[in-house]
Known about the structure:
alpha+beta; 4-stranded mixed beta sheet; 55% helix; binds zinc ion; transmembrane helix; transmembrane; membrane; MYND-type domain-containing protein
Amino acid sequence: MHALLKDHSNLAFHALRSDPPPGPLENQQELVIVIVAGLDVFSSITNLSKTSPLCRGLQSPMRALWPHILKWAALLRPVQTRNVWRHRSLAGCGIISSILESYYMLMCDTTYAKPFLHINNTIVEHAFELWKLYPRYTTSPNSETLATANTSIWIVRILHRMLVQHGGGATAEDRALFIDKLAHVVGSKRALYDTIARQTDFLAEMGLQRTLHDAISTVWTDHYDLLITLVGIPRFARSKVPATTIASVVSAATKCLKRRETRYGAFPAVKLLNALCSMVKSNRSLVHAVDAGVFDLVRSLSEERESIEDPSISDFIRLLCAGLYHAQVIRAFVRRHRDSIPLSRTSKALGRATWRDVARLASEAGAMYASTLKGKAWQCQFDCSNTMGPHNRRVQICPCANAFYCSGSCQRMRRFTHLDSCCSDESPWGLHGIISLADALFICIAVWAYIDRNAAIIGRELSSLRLNQSSLRLNQSSPRIKQRRKCAQLVKQAVVRVDITDVLPDARHEVDTRTVYMPDAPPAGSIPVAVEVVLRAGKTSATRFLPFTYPRDYFKH
Ligand SMILES: [Zn+2]
Ligand SMILES: [Zn+2]
């Protein structure tokens, strides 16, 4: 074998080592075929040198070929310039799969590959390019195309493991190489999400071929695992994910479910959806997912036996259920499923979330939305924030979502005290547009309903707080408080904090006290109970006081 490798008359390796001829390679079909054969022999021998102890000695002559592999791959890889494919006519020779295979073999040799990549960083660029463009190389779905896609996914995963993951001993320089090259090849953050959509659509199309059913299952897992890794890199995080990306993933997963052999491909899809919906600032991604029909998807999946072992389905269902406390999400749900939400009031206690939880919450929230927000019935439900009457029956909400007014005069009377809490940018609860005014109102209504349901329990918890002796004893030594003492009252106010970040089986609450400054404080026993909400939209979590309070007596049932 050694003799064979050293023998320069060996056609394949001799051609690999030689310099490329001037002029276009399209006219050199024979040479191209020999080069491709050379790449294949390189891959086979490298593989052999790793698996068989007898061939270990071949590793170093193979490494000596790396620069030549790179030189030819750079010339032969398909490049799209001005919408024209260079060397497309050569694609039939299996160029792409041979290049990918030799890159794969090269990169598996991590110890030597890493320094090589730093010196010849174009290879990293090629790897990303071959991965990004795999849906474009061919229009005919066959096992070879699928294998090409799979290898290109694997190469990027190996690169990530070698250059980014902490376990792989990656340095800051390694990470920069990976991230800079990926950013360069992909173009923009948005383009990465377009690539996700294109690749997912392509694989879904391939999955329709009967002959590929078995092979595609593992490709789905690798595809989604890679994407979850890539969108998790802070440089590629977006505050919004395009609706087309989410629609592609939902639709591909739905196609997977149609056949027993491909069903497993739907599980990692939900994992990616979970990542896409949790990484953005708002509930916008969740709305896109609901619009694309994600409920039907989780409905099929949560009944599957695998979902017991796979926590990602249950996690996503929890996210979806918490989303149903937001007007945007429930509106999308009603829009998509109108009358077809299957009723399921008896959700079995399985210890994990299932579609039945979504169905129960969606029908409750849908009914609440229809009866309060749609007909503006909420306008009669809340009281004007101005303390002095008389008031009109109906109220409006301030754009900051921190106050209700029944009239312009009430708003003017209250303006002076409200200015402090009214957010200057007028976005609800100062969350910079992450939730809409309708969301804020719906949260108020849902929390109102929750407190109503749980009034007796909350009442018991409030009495254990011993608020009666709570008129705070002022600390005489504190000069700041001394100054205010003439007109000020520091009082202890009871607060019911309702957490709607996880609503299965229901939202949860805790009762607490806070010390507030009330210039015209009523006697301790009649200080109203304030309400606070802990909410989450995408990756944003926030705690806000709601613009209404309860008289202490409300809870004395
Ligand atoms: Zn009023
Ligand atoms: Zn306001």
